[in-house]
């Protein structure tokens, strides 16, 4: 019997951006969209073009290769046509493949918030969807406060669903906007919606205010919806949104769902789940939640004792899924064996192939664990992992060595009497026995060091001409006078590839320099691989 298709709609870049303390830059959005493409979601909702400069610029180019690039906005304003509504036109003129419009479906809000008649709201909804379809966009409607609206006036809530579908909407999404609906209520109400709408045109968008967003989403799927909306790591306003990092492996691995449904996320993509979740947290400059289901560091951890000894004999009794199926690893204090399979997978991403019994693998595993204990995190810095792996395995070419460097910051008054800050960096590098010294001024010590390092790299200079520092994030791992600083640097080159390197030190400049050094080293490794000259590990 063929399986039914489920569609994953990610709202991290729009709904997740409403999380307190999170502000996505353009580079953040581009990078996160790349993570979502790796994961294999079907839709990536990128934001609201026209609402702010970042979102507007983000939608000037198509940012996805496979997922449907989706813009978000509101239905047209009352009293004007869709053609004369700037908000609608910003969406329709963007590079988005699909447009998701939020619509009021609770009669109370239509009357009090929009201050229009119920029929006028339906007309706005109908005209908006029709305009999107006419413009060649796939149209989606997010039915705001749908479950509250249904409880208040079920006939009107259902009329909103039917109006959207009749106008040509591909999906009508039922939103638990305040997160207060119970799973049993979700199941019951979705069942009633199916009387006017087919399940393969319905979606669910749950908030987590009662801690039940995942449960409500799964209940909606069981009841009949076929599109699932949520965010990476469950970020979102107030208490967050349905967590796709929890929902996706449940759909793919649990027989209750896996036997009936299929998604675009196969076993190979699912094995990247933990890495993607932690890389996303690194991008947000926050610590991953250790007890997060499936991907947390403690998700498959067992303390020494009766459970640990039993676990060594029968893993399946104490683990609801194999940890490697989601890219995680079991943590047992008496054994490091479990980490090898993950390490082999990570090495394969960089075309490094080792046998599982290769003694160098044990050495690399021990090195990674030791460095992570000091504050390094390679889930979000894959380029640094590649450099470390080549170094430990003895396959890292000696491109250049840094003899010494110096960075200085001076605040002074210029000729006009204005107070300015001048930053200068001096770097001495030895390439093929030749000592090269470069001096550069920059916008801060990290930028100055970056410019100085790349100013003259001898015979390698031409190979890093298109290298560019894109982003720089700092996190303090420990407080106090001996605080450990972690620096994450994002780089890119002319091929469009982006990579991340990491540095850790009590000194922020040392940590930054380490990350910059490894970024250049990775770029040189990359150019050699492109030329087919990188040494392969047999």
TrEMBL record:
<dbReference type="GO" id="GO:0016746">
    <property type="term" value="F:acyltransferase activity"/>
</dbReference>
<dbReference type="InterPro" id="IPR054691">
    <property type="entry name" value="LeuA/HCS_post-cat"/>
</dbReference>
<dbReference type="InterPro" id="IPR002034">
    <property type="entry name" value="AIPM/Hcit_synth_CS"/>
</dbReference>
<keyword id="KW-0012">Acyltransferase</keyword>
<dbReference type="Pfam" id="PF08502">
    <property type="entry name" value="LeuA_dimer"/>
</dbReference>
<dbReference type="InterPro" id="IPR036230">
    <property type="entry name" value="LeuA_allosteric_dom_sf"/>
</dbReference>
<keyword id="KW-0100">Branched-chain amino acid biosynthesis</keyword>
<feature type="domain" description="Pyruvate carboxyltransferase">
    <location>
        <begin position="6"/>
        <end position="271"/>
    </location>
</feature>
<dbReference type="InterPro" id="IPR000891">
    <property type="entry name" value="PYR_CT"/>
</dbReference>
<dbReference type="Pfam" id="PF00682">
    <property type="entry name" value="HMGL-like"/>
</dbReference>
<keyword id="KW-0412">Isoleucine biosynthesis</keyword>
<dbReference type="InterPro" id="IPR005675">
    <property type="entry name" value="Citramal_synthase"/>
</dbReference>
<dbReference type="InterPro" id="IPR013709">
    <property type="entry name" value="2-isopropylmalate_synth_dimer"/>
</dbReference>
<dbReference type="Pfam" id="PF22617">
    <property type="entry name" value="HCS_D2"/>
</dbReference>
<keyword id="KW-0808">Transferase</keyword>
<comment type="similarity">
    <text>Belongs to the alpha-IPM synthase/homocitrate synthase family.</text>
</comment>
<dbReference type="InterPro" id="IPR013785">
    <property type="entry name" value="Aldolase_TIM"/>
</dbReference>
<protein>
    <recommendedName>
        <fullName>Citramalate synthase</fullName>
        <ecNumber>2.3.3.21</ecNumber>
    </recommendedName>
</protein>
<keyword id="KW-0028">Amino-acid biosynthesis</keyword>
<comment type="pathway">
    <text>Amino-acid biosynthesis; L-isoleucine biosynthesis; 2-oxobutanoate from pyruvate: step 1/3.</text>
</comment>
